[in-house]
Structures are given as structure tokens and as C-alpha cells.
Amino acid sequence: VGGRLFAVSAAPMGERGAVLVLRDVTRIEKMERTQKEFVANVSHELRTPLTSVMGYVELLLDEERWESEAEEKYGGDVTETSGPPSSTRLEFLEAILKSARRMERLTEDLLVMAKVDSGEQKLNPMRTWASTLIEEAVMATSGLFMERGELEVGEVVEAEVMADMDAMLQVVGNLIENAINYGTRRGEEPRVRLAAQRSAGLSGFVEFSVQDFGMGIAMEHRERIFERFFRADKARSRATGGTGLGLSIARHLVEEQGGAIWVESDLGHGSRFCFTLPEVMVGTAAVSVSDAFM
Ligand code: ADP
């Protein structure tokens, strides 16, 4: 029916006829496929750092290897070794810590996503000035620019929006981190600009933006980067400890508050991630009506 696949089950109902049950199998199949892909993705993402941890630990514990290396180095009179030289040990432990951090970040993001999916993460939008959201975002992320780079604030409209501050700080924080990690050309200092203006296309909304001046994002990736686990630049995402989940969580949090999120990008010149939040309209109609009768 209409390109969809239905499962039909029929049960006789005495002499008077039968009950026919139609189930939309297309939807169920799609959900099952999405779930399978998700499990495969998570397993893959966890296996890579886990393999690395196990490899390094096995190496550290490989007494024979360190014994023969020490023998080669110091001659045959080595009777006892206590593992690898301390510089090697340090290097391996650091690599282990890095992989463990990756797994920690992934599980944290997965937990947030599970909460989002189950509707457990209840958002509580409240009246907030656009400028307050920007100021808090600047404060929360100033540490990222302590050593290098610059976070600029452009034009900020004087308007109130409905926003869950914690959720929005998570969204803006993620966009700023991405701008630093992916929107900075090699060898250059990160430069990120925040702004908020009345939405030109959507009346009743304020549009916030996080702009970078990096390489930009190819047209075919601009929509896909909001999908779970999608990364345009896998190597760079791994190197920065990315999980590929940040933008999909951001999209959910923004949409849950009645807004939209998207990216505009100029290849070779940078990207501008934008999201909207509903503006609080303070009795404008009432004011104009009473004014008209005065
Ligand atoms: P993560 O950063 O954990 O990989 P995200 O969902 O936050 O996951 O981002 C998905 C992908 O989108 C990134 O891996 C990167 O390829 C791309 N991306 C995100 N932000 C930018 C940006 N400002 N400039 C260029 N590419 C970006």
C-alpha cells in the first residue's frame, strides 16, 4: 500500500466475519535496521580504543621481551628486569590513558543520547536574554582559548528567548569545540565568532551563530554531519577525541525547544553553524491595540 509493506494477520470471528490486522512492517524494518547499525557503530567505536589499551598492557607485561631487550643492551649479566625502561613505560601509559579517555567520552555521550531518546532528559525552557546565553557560553568556554586563539562576540540582538540554559550551553559548547577542532587551518590560531540576530527567514525566532574561518564543509556533508556517528574527517575527529555524536545531540536539544539547527559553509573560507530559539513576544498585540484607541 503506497510503497509500504504491511503484515496481515486474520482471525476468524465466528459466523459474522474476521478481524484483519495490518501492521506497517516498513517502519518496523527501518527501526530494526537503524538499531542494528547503531549497535554496530557503538561496538566499532569501543573496539578501537579497547584494542589499543590491550595491546599496550600486553606489551608492558611481556617480561620476556623486556628481558631480551635489556640483555641486548647491557650484556648477558642481567638476571632480573622490572619491565620496560621508564620512558617507554610512561609513553605506553599515556597512550592507554588517551584510549581510556576516548571510551569515557563515548560512554558519556551515549548516556546523554540514551536519556534524550527515552525522553528522560526533560528540558525546562525559561525566559532568557540572548545576551545572557552568549555571555554564559563565553564564560563556559573561555578556558579553551586560554593558551591560544580568540573567541569574538559580534552583534547580539536585544531580545528574550525561551531556552533551557544547561542544554543550550551544551550545544554552544559543542559548536565552539568543533570550530576549534575542525574549523581551524593547520598552523593557524583558532578564531571563533558568536552572534545573535533576529531570524531573517523565520519571524518570531532569534538566530544564534557560531562561525569559524577554517576549511569549510563540503556540500555533500552539510546535512550528514548531524547524523549519529557521521564524521567528515575521520582522522581529525579521532585525533581530537570526537565521538561523532555531538551534532546529533545538539540537533535533538535544539529541536526539542522548538528551534532548528543547520550549517552554512563556504568551502575554503569557513562555516557558520546556526540555530534558532523562539523569541518571547511580550504583549506586543495588547500594547498596539490599546495605543490605537488612546
Ligand atoms: P565529533 O566532533 O565528535 O566527531 P560531531 O557530531 O560534533 O562529532 O561532528 C561531526 C563531524 O562534523 C565532525 O567529525 C567533523 O567532520 C564535522 N564538523 C563539525 N564541525 C565542523 C566545523 N566547524 N568545520 C568543519 N567540519 C566540522
From TrEMBL:
It catalyses: ATP + protein L-histidine = ADP + protein N-phospho-L-histidine. Residues 41-281 form the Histidine kinase domain. GO terms for molecular function: ATP binding; phosphorelay response regulator activity; phosphorelay sensor kinase activity; protein kinase activator activity. This is histidine kinase. One of its GO terms (biological process) is osmosensory signaling via phosphorelay pathway. Its EC number is 2.7.13.3. Keywords: ATP-binding, Kinase, Membrane, Nucleotide-binding, Phosphoprotein, Transferase, Transmembrane, Transmembrane helix, Two-component regulatory system. The chain holds residues 193 to 486 of 496 of the full protein. The keyword Transmembrane helix applies. It comes from Bryocella elongata. The keyword Transmembrane applies.
